[in-house]
Amino acid sequence: MMMKNQVLPRITALSFCLFLLFGLTSCNGVSGIIEKEKNNDLISAEETVEPKDESKKEENESLLLEHEHVWSKENYQEPKTCSCGQTEGAPLPAAFMEYGFEFIEAGKTYPYTSACVMDRTVYSTGSVTVNDYRIVEAEEDFESKNGFEWRIIDWTMEFSDDNVHKYSVFYASYSYDFYDGKYYPEGSGEIVTGSHHEYESEKFFVNYFGQDIECEQRIFHDGSWRDQVCIIEGTAAISVPVGYDGGVHVFMNAVYTLSESGEIIDPKPSIAEAAAQTGNLYFRFS
Question: How many domains is the chain partitioned into structurally?
Fold first, then answer.
């Protein structure tokens, strides 16, 4: 019994020591694993969570920039435009579109009526033909200018009815702007002498892509009788920025441009007034 009792404690003590040793090792091992996993979590957080925050920050900044548009005002050629290239809305409406004008074509003949000289209550009816329309950088009588082009029409009026023989006839042709509806001034007294004609020259402005640009108009016209036909020949030329298609030449019944005393009215009728008139012809430099 004594031997048995003595042996058991030794075994128990040995087992306890083994258990204690194993337990400490296991705990240390588990503790090491847990700590390592915690460290991995920390590393994972540093490597993944932080970049996500930075990416989100950059995305928010990008979205913010996208919505902080810097807009230029709309003009007759393009709508409101941001510096990033985005557009919004539509270009400004053209004055001539508001009144629904129809335009004549080059190479065709159209009836044209105007007041007579001796009696402005009497009209003479003849015709107008735009014989030629061209866009050139330069040609004889029209010199080149950097960034500009000449838009030129040559036209002919003819009258042969009884009234023109009895009372003679007034005629009127002027240029306006298709977009803002303004009249292109003429008759400043400045004369440009060409190889074929002397032209009345006048400066005017057009608004092109939001910029006011100075341009020039040159006008020539002269009349004569040929075989009982009153013939007036003319040239209208405008020097405008390359691509500008806003010029409109109007063949107007002269009764709308004369005062009661027969003097030429200045300023000329507005586009709204011209729209209310009958018999006018419109050619666009497009």
Answer: 2
Q: Is residue 83 part of a domain?
A: no
Same domain, 13 and 130: no
Q: How many residues does the chain have?
A: 286
Domain that residue 130 falls in: 95-284
| Overall pTM surpassing 0.85 (yes/no) | no
Please list the residues that pair with 198 across neighbouring strands: 193
What's the Cα-to-Cα distance from 68 to each of 62, 63, 84, 150, rounded to whole Å?
A: 10, 9, 10, 41
In contact, 242 and 149? CB cutoff 8 Å: yes
Cα–Cα–Cα angle for 282, 285, 286, nearest 5°? 115
| Distance from the Cα of residue 144 to its chain's centroid | 24
**Residue of 194 and 161 predicted with greater confidence:** 161
CA torsion sign, 169 to 154 to 95 to 266?
negative
Residue 173 makes CB contacts below 8 A (sequence gap 6+) with 155, 219, 221, 234, 236, 249, 250, 251, 252
